Amino acid sequence: MSIPPEPQTESQRESQIQPLSEPQGEPPTQPASGSRGEPAAFTHHVEVHFYEVDQVGVVFNAWYLAWCDDARLAYLASRGYGLEQARAADALPLVRHADIEWLASLSAGDRADIVVRPVRVGTTSFTLRHDIHRASDGMLCAVLTITYVAAGLAERTKRELPLSLRSALDEDRVPA
Question: Which sign does the torsion angle of CA 28, 167, 162, 95 carry?
Answer without folding.
Answer: negative
